[in-house]
Amino acid sequence: MDPNVKRITRVARMRMLFGLAFLAVGLLFLILFLTDLMLADWATPGNVAILVSVLVLLGAILMSVRIGVILDSQRRTITTWWGLLVPFHKTEHPFSQMHYVTLSREERSARKTRYEVFPVRLEGPGTDAITLQEPPDHDKARRLAEEVAKFLHLGIQDRSSGEEVVREAGALDQSLQQRVRRAGRSMPLPAQPPQARAIFNYGGIRAPTTIEIPPAGRSALLQVMFIAGGIVIVTELLIWLKGDLADIDMSMSTLFTFLLVMGISLPLLLRAVILRERLVVSGDELVVTRRDIFGTKTTRLTGAEIEEVEITQAGIYTTSRVVIRSDRGSVELGAALSAEEELQWLRDVLVHVLTATSEDKHDRDPRDYRDLSHAGDEVPLESASSTLVRLFAYAPPVVLALAGAVIWLSGRYQALDLVDSLQAQAPYALVLGAGMLAWAAWLLRGRSSAHRDLLFIAAATLISIVFAFATVGPWLNARLDPGQPTVHAAKVIEKNPRPRGWEWYLYVESWRKGRGRERIDVDPDTFSRARVATDSLVLGIRSGGLGFEWIESYHVQHAGHPATGLVFRGWQLYQAGRLTEAEKVLRQAVQLDPRSFDARRHLDYVLMRAQRWDEIFESWNEFLRLEPGHAGAYLERAGTHRHAGNAEQALRDLERACSLGEAKACQLRERLR
C-alpha cells in the first residue's frame, strides 16, 4: 500500500435506507408467497419471481452505492469517485498549499425531519469545494479533518462553532496551552456576571478551581407535554369505561401516541430537574462529574492535551454550551446555563485556568465568590461500553417491539374488555419492565455511557411494553387458553359514526350482567354488512390463558337467517379438528336453512376430509336446484370434481361459474385447458 495515498469511502445513507426498504419488501413478498398468505389473483409463481427479483436487485444496487475520495500527497491531487462498491467514475482535482481543510456545521432537512451534519471539505481559491465526508458527529468530523490536514500538510479552518478558527499546518498538534504561550498572550480572569447561576470557587495557584452548575429546572415545553399526555390518557380511559362517551372519536391509537410522547418526555423532564454538573479544573487536568437520575459519570481530560475550548451555537434539539476538545475525546458543559453571558464567562474562566502560568495567576479574595458545596466523591473514568454489550442491553425492548409488530401484522387478538385486559396484564408488565431495566443496568454497570444508554432504554422499554399490551399480551392470552369458546348472539344497536381506515366497530347488546352494551372491532366487510336493530353479531368468546376474555371469531347473522349461529359453531368445531361434531352441527344448519351457502361450503370441507365425494355432490346438487344461478356453488362443485378426478365435469362447472361472473372460475378454467 502506497504511504502517500489515502482512501476515504462513505456510504450514501439515504440510498442505503431506500435499498434496505426495497430489499425488505422483496423478501416480504417472497415469504408471503411461500407461506400461502398471498391470495391475490396476480400472484402466480412467475409474477412473484419477477417482482421479488426486481425489488431485491434494486435494493442490492442502492445498498452498494459508494462515494469516495483518494488523497495523493505526493502528486498533490484529490480524486473523487462514485460506484457500486468499486469506483465507476473518477474526477481528479489538483490542490496546493493555498488550500485548507474546512470543518463546518450545517442543518439539513429530509421531508419533515431536520438534522445536523458536520461536512469536512477541501477548499481553495478559484476552485470548487470538495466534500470529503459529512459525519453527523462533531468529534468524528474533527478527527477526520485533522487526519486529512496532517496527511496533506494543510491547515484547518474550523467554522463549526459559529466563529472561524484557523489552525495552520504546523500547529495542528499543539495544545491550547502551547498556542497561547507561543503567542505571548494570556486570558485574564473574568468577573462573574450578576445573577449567575453557577457556584464558583477560584483556587488560585495552590488549589484547583471548582465550578458547580445547578439543574436547569423544569422545562415549560416538557411540562406541557406531560400534562397534555395525562389529560388525554384519562379522557381515553373514560371513553372506554363509559359507553355514553363513545361519540368522541378517540381510540387505542390516540392512547398509544400519547404514551409514546410521555415515554420520551418523562425521562427528559426528570433528567432536566436533577442533572447537576461539577467541574474541577487546573492547568494539569479537567475533571467533569455529572449526576442525574441514572447515576454519576466522570470524565477526565489532561490539561496539556486540550486543544479547544469554545461555545457551540444552539442546534435543532440542543442549546448553546461550552465544548472542550482534545484528541482523546470531548466534553460538553453548561447545558443548564441559558444566559449567553454566563456561558462566555465559563469559557473564559476555563481558558484562563488551563493556560495561566505562575506569573499570571493571582489569588482572589474568596469573598468575591459564593461558597461551593462539595458534591461528593468522584467516580473514576471507566472504559466505554463495547458495541456487543450495548446491543445486548438494547435487545429486550427491541425484540419485544418487533414481536408485537409481527403479531400485529399477522392478525389481532381482540380483548373483550380493555380494563380487564389491562388489569390482567399489569403484573406481568411490571415484572417484565423491571427485569428489562435490571438486565440493562447490570450489563452497563460502571460504564461511562451508562446514564445515557439507560435513559433511552427506559423510554424504549415503556414504549415496547405499551405496544405489547395490544399485541403480545393478547396473543399469549389466546395461545395459552385451554378452554372452548362460548357462543353469544348479540343484536347490533349502533355503528361507529365516523369510521376510519383502521377503526371499524359495532355496538351490540351485552350478555354480561351490569353492562349495557359491548364495543366490538370488526373488519370493514362485516361493518358494511351489519344492519342496525335487525341483524345480530354471533361471537365466539373464550376465557383466556392470562385471565381476560377475548373474541375468537365473529359473524353477522342477518334477520331471517337463523342458521348463521349453527354455521359459525360448526366452523369452529371444524377448525378445532372435531369433525364428527362439526358435521352434525352443519347438517342441522342445512336442514334449518337449505339455501345457506356457508353451511353447504363448510359441510363440503368436513366431508372432503374423509373423501366422501358422493355426499358432497348430493349436497351441492340439492343447493343448485334451489339456487340455480349461484356462481359460487358451481365453483365449489367444480373443486370437488377436480379432487375426485373428474376433469371434464370440473371444467364444465367452471365454465358455468365463469359465465355467471365468477372471475376466479375464469382463471381456473384457463389453467385446466
The overall pLDDT, averaged over residues, is 77
Q: Which structural class is indicated by helix and strand composition?
A: alpha+beta
In helices, the fraction of residues equals: 40-55%
What gyration radius follows from the Cα positions, in whole Å? 36 Å
Counted beta strands: 25
Give the overall shape, derived from the CA principal axes: elongated
Keywords:
673 residues, alpha+beta, five-stranded mixed sheet, 45% helix
Summarize the structure.
This protein has 673 residues and is an alpha+beta fold. Helix content is 45%, strand content 22%. The chain is built from 19 helices and 25 strands.
Please provide a written account of the structure.
With 673 residues, this protein is α+β, with helices and mostly antiparallel strands. The chain is built from 19 helices and 25 strands. The strands form six sheets. It has a six-stranded antiparallel β-sheet. Helix 6 (252-274) runs antiparallel to helix 10 and helix 15 (597-609) packs antiparallel against helix 16 (613-626). The longest helix has 27 residues, at 418-444. The radius of gyration is 36 Å and the shape is elongated. Mean pLDDT is 77; it is low at 242-251 and 360-385.
